[in-house]
Amino acid sequence: NLLIGAAWFGPLPVPEAVRRCESIVARSSERRRIKASALRALTGLKAMQGDFDEARELIERHRALVQDLELSVSAAHAAESYGIVEMLAGDPVAAERELRRGYETLEQLGGEMNVSPLAALLAQALSAQGRAEEALLFTELSERAALPDDRYAHVEWRAARAKALSALRRADEAEALAREAVALAEQTDFLVVHADALMILGDVLRLAGRADESRPVVENALRLYEQKGNVVSAASARAALERTGPAAQRGATEPSSRRT
Fold first, then answer.
1. What share of the chain is helix, strand, coil (3-state, %, to 5)?
2. DSSP assignment, residue 113?
């Protein structure tokens, strides 16, 4: 399981990570729980490559397997992966549906369930739909539920709140939290988590009218996405750089009569 988690979140390039997980799934002697973990990782890895149809097929295979194994908690936590797939696919409505289902299931199960990452990702899906106030509420739930030593959760709730605050034009608060998220992510080898936090900081700076400061931040995110082999997020980073480039800045200052 640790090797599988490292394949998805760690520095192992996506093509190699895919091969590792596919090898595990193909082994007839492998325990079904381990196969389920590999299938779950493959959903995100395939989405990073832009293979969304295959990623969704893998989601259904994973969903069926954990249901057959009667792993209700694992099934609920897997909504995190399913939501990431849909966010990469550019469908925050579908992401919200998956994440909310998992979050509500864990809430119903109660106990020491770690709902923090799900709540933070749900907040990001809500922000992507223009529902920043609702997103803020879920970042508060995420913060309260975050375990003290869960650095991933602490990066995610800060990044999600920064995104929501930026949309609400609370730029100073947003920047402070985004920088905290980046600083925490830098202490891990989670390349995509680090890059995602950088992208949110870059967006916060851009929306605050500081495109010159945003650009190097996004360039750093692009470098990390490329290092991981996350082609979908790398493309998003390149598009963000175009929005902050010299041409974009000239366009922003041209008289309206000259714009097309």
1. 80, 0, 20
2. -
Helix axes 32-48, 2-9, angle to 10 degrees: 0
**What whole-number distance in Å separates Cα of residue 114 and Cα of residue 131?**
24
What pTM was computed for the model? 0.90
**At a CB cut-off of 8 Å and minimum separation 6, what does 49 contact?**
14, 18, 229, 231, 232
Rg (C-alpha) for the chain, rounded Å, is 19
What gap in Å lies between CA 246 and CA 144, rounded to an integer? 42
Q: How far apart are CA 195 and CA 126, in angstroms?
A: 20
Q: List per-residue pLDDT tens for the chain, 260 residues long.
A: 667 878 888 999 999 999 999 999 998 777 899 999 999 999 999 999 999 999 999 999 999 999 999 898 999 999 999 999 999 999 999 999 999 999 999 988 875 568 999 999 999 999 999 999 999 999 999 999 999 999 999 999 999 999 999 999 999 999 999 999 999 999 999 999 999 999 999 999 999 999 999 999 999 999 999 999 999 999 999 999 998 766 444 333 333 333 32
| DSSP assignment of 209-257 | T-HHHHHHHHHHHHHHHHHHT-HHHHHHHHHHHHHHSHHHHHHHHS-GG
Other Cβ atoms closer than 10 A to 253: 6
